Amino acid sequence: MPYFIDTHAHLYLPEFDHDRDHVIETSINRGIKKIFLPNIDSSSIGLMNDLAVRFPDVCYPMMGLHPTSVKDTYPEELERVEYELEHGYYVGIGEIGIDLYWDKTYFKEQCLAFSRQIELSIRHGLPIVIHARDSFGEIMEILERYRNKGLSGIFHAFAGTVDIAKQVTNMGFKLGISGILTYKNSTLPAVVRETDLKNLVLETDSPYLTPVPFRGKRNESSYIPYIAGAVKQIKNITLDEVAEVTTNNVQSLFSLEKHG
Questions:
Q1: Which domain covers residue 10, as residue numbers?
Q2: Taking the model in full, what pTM does it have?
């Protein structure tokens, strides 16, 4: 039976402190067999890794410095990222990127941190998970410097246009399809319609971006089937096909056959 993978969930955050185990068990029972945990900064590493140790066949940690955590201390934060990649087990580098929505103060530092982590991904042979908010042009300019270097990964919580989606997939990246797909004024239905299923992966970004019909409440990995159901309707295919292809996309991208 096909199963789903949630490629992006922050289940280690305080929003889950009172029912974390129940959330994970519910997700497993609803067919979400693997959940990827993107890191934020040094403060989240221990919490994330503790969860991966407790659920070793379900929770897969990634390592990176989130762009909104790039401050004056970013060199020390990147040293920690580098140390963790050398000494720990991580399936990818994320979430990394540039965020110009909240604060442009550290734009230069965000660019430097993003470039450094791309170089780490090349060194370690790991895919990257990109956070691009109000920064697509800046992200693509940096990625172009590393074209033909073996880069791969996901544009997390993709919310761009069909033309932007084509640029992303032509560079070899997958689109992370989240609960945004179910929102009334979302541009994502057109993107999903025009994008080959082999270029899509599913994610929740829990506890954020909760899909309809739960929008306004805390998101969790067990809601992946609602996102998959929207893909099914747009593509006019079966839910099993959505599960099978998107899961295969993730397994191939993250080389899960090597890790189990």
A1: 4-259
A2: 0.96
CB distance 94 to 58 below 8 Å = no
Closest CA to 174 of 146, 201, 135: 201
Token duo for residue 35: 């959940």
Q: Which residue has the tokens 């929770």?
A: 59
pLDDT tens digits, one per residue of 15-42: 999 999 999 999 999 999 999 999 999 9
The torsion defined by the Cα of 49, 53, 58 and 60, in degrees rounded to 10, comes to 30
CATH of the domain at 46: 3.20.20.140
CA neighbor of 173 nearest in space, from 121, 127, 242? 127
Do the strands 4-6 and 128-133 form a parallel or antiparallel pair, or are they unpaired? unpaired
Low-confidence ranges of the chain (pLDDT < 70): 1, 257-260
From 173, 175, 216, select the one nearest 192 (Cα to Cα): 175
Q: Which residues of 200-218 are buried (b: 16+ CB within 10 A; e: fewer)?
A: bbbbbbbbbbbbbeeeeee
Q: Which structure tokens are listed for 89?
A: 């087990």
Q: Could you tell me the strand order of the sheet in which 173-177 lies? A: 93-99, 128-133, 153-155, 173-177, 200-202
- Among candidate residues 34, 28, 64, the one with its CA nearest the CA of residue 256: 34
Residues ≥6 apart with Cβ < 8 Å to 105 = none
Residues with Cβ < 8 Å from 182, sequence gap 6 or more? 211, 212, 215, 226, 227, 230
Q: How many domains does the chain have?
A: 1
